[in-house]
Amino acid sequence: MEPTGFLFWLANTSFIGSILIGIILYIKKLFHKKFHTKWHYYVWFLLVVRLVMPYAPKSPLSIINGFLYIRNYIVGHGIQRTSTGDTTGIFNEAVGSIETVDFHEDYFFPMNEGFSFLIYRILFIIWLAGVIAITVYLVIQHIKFLKWSRKCSDINCFDLLQLFEECKTLLNIKKHINLIETNEIRSPAFFGMIRPCILLPVNITEKLGLKKAKYILLHELIHYKNRDVYINWIICFLKIIHWFNPIIWYGFYHMQQDREIACDSYVLSYLETYEYRDYGRTIIAVLEEFPSPIATSFIMGIGSTSGCIKRRIYSIMDFKKDNRKIKLKELAISFFIGCILLTNPETASTMTNYSQQIDPTKEIIQEDLSRYFEGYEGTFVMMDMKEEQYHIFNEEMINKKVSPYSTFKILSALIGLETGRLEDENTVIKWDGTNYPFEDWNRDHTLASAFQYSTNWYFQKANQYVTLQQMKEYINILNYGNKRVEGDVETFWIGGTLEISPFQQVEFLKDFYTYEIPFTSENIDIVKKTIQLGSDGTSILYGKTASSMINDKSILGWFIGYVERGDDVYFFATKIEGNDEADGRRARNITLKILEDKKIFSINL
């Protein structure tokens, strides 16, 4: 994964994780005394799962839907635009001849992302440096602790060893676990994954007595039984990955506190009711006798969370055996929380299988057109309106959404005409003097000539009086692509938030051609005239190319349109992607070869 893509994933995951922490804390507070303490710990695993998931399924129940709605509302109502410029309507001759093919130029701005990539790489290096620094520190700390623990002596106290075996038998633990005494650790602790051991301060039985030692051993053995040391390492890993986000660290701090409280509950479940008070007194005694809490990432113990001593004591006082009804409620709540926390928002960008959108009366024909796409990853979809057939190549890419780039100019022109900014194909918008890299852009343009030279600034000015909210309404009514209109009203369709699939392009063209979109037939006819490319004598070709260039490399090309042939119409969309030389002109040439071989439209390229 490129640094840019990884950083976006990391930032998004960390942001969602922060939201989930707030939600989990609120839900825990809501059910503070209604659910078992174990549930209050296990609910945190939803956060762990969410942070390690490389991909989350989309769901309308996702809580992120609400945040996106609020964000979109703020963006839509918070951006205001003013516009200047002089528009003069001048009527000239129509461009193009019905018996020739005059392809429009495929001019497009290269998206030089060198500076942006540099910023992302710097951020990635900073993040990686933090990860390495924390990891090296923890590894060194762990190695030192490991070496030190191997030098410690095993406990030889017969009574304590016998008590230890009784505790293991009670918990049904058969694995050998070392019982070590040391002066270095000032509080009882559990340590080790491969060679687990329990560390006890020297002379603990003399200081606390065997009865309290029993409760301490049970607590540490529960950590082993619940595989808490593995969970601790996962948490440690996630904290390293998200070292820059204090909210994530805060959430795991609460999770570790809840783990100790849950561990207390497990111990109590093995004790008689009259022993609960003694167990609580043991925790207090440990903190009084061994006041230094454990402060490492790879060991845990009964005295490791002195900050929540009140909660632990209150939980012990309120402890009740597991109740089946409460467990069912906990399960139901957990399932619901999982649905809203472990899923991504179901936006319009969610992929929908194209076959589910096609009228079941229409036939789908899969074709192997790979010979036309050599050197590119591409797809082709064509709808034969008369035969009610869809011709599909590369089914996997049919639903893949990318920016429409210049193909959006068809809709941009319609909006400009509908709002009155443009009168017809001959409406002139004056050039403002900005020096563009293409000489053909550096002059006044009509709608017809703007299509011919794919003049970005013309279409941006044609829609300059349209607010972001109005643009959203147009896009939503048309159900165009993923319907995401965010940021700048002039550029959201040029590598921005708006994306559309090849199948959706064909559906839009069909609705456009058959006047099934909410625009006047006069305005639709004007745009039809401007995207007309020419004729081969029997068929008329209409279309629009689009390209994307990053760092002087053409990486994506569109060619969409339709062919009128007799009493039939063929709507098509071709998209190609590649590391270089993948642009609208090449997508157009591929399309024309396919159409010629199908005897739909013939031309000598």
Automatic annotation (TrEMBL):
What does the UniProt keyword field contain?
Antibiotic resistance, Hydrolase, Membrane, Signal, Transmembrane, Transmembrane helix
According to the UniProt record, what class of enzyme is this?
A: hydrolase
Pfam families in alphabetical order: Peptidase_M56, Transpeptidase
| InterPro entries assigned | Beta-lactam/transpept-like, Beta-lactam_class-D_AS, Beta-lactam_resp_regulator, PCN-bd_Tpept, Peptidase_M56
Q: Quick check: keyword Transmembrane in the entry?
A: yes
* Domain of life of the organism encoding this protein: Bacteria
Catalytic activity as recorded in UniProt: a beta-lactam + H2O = a substituted beta-amino acid
Q: What protein name does the entry list?
A: Beta-lactamase
In its UniProt entry, the species of origin is given as Anaerovirgula multivorans
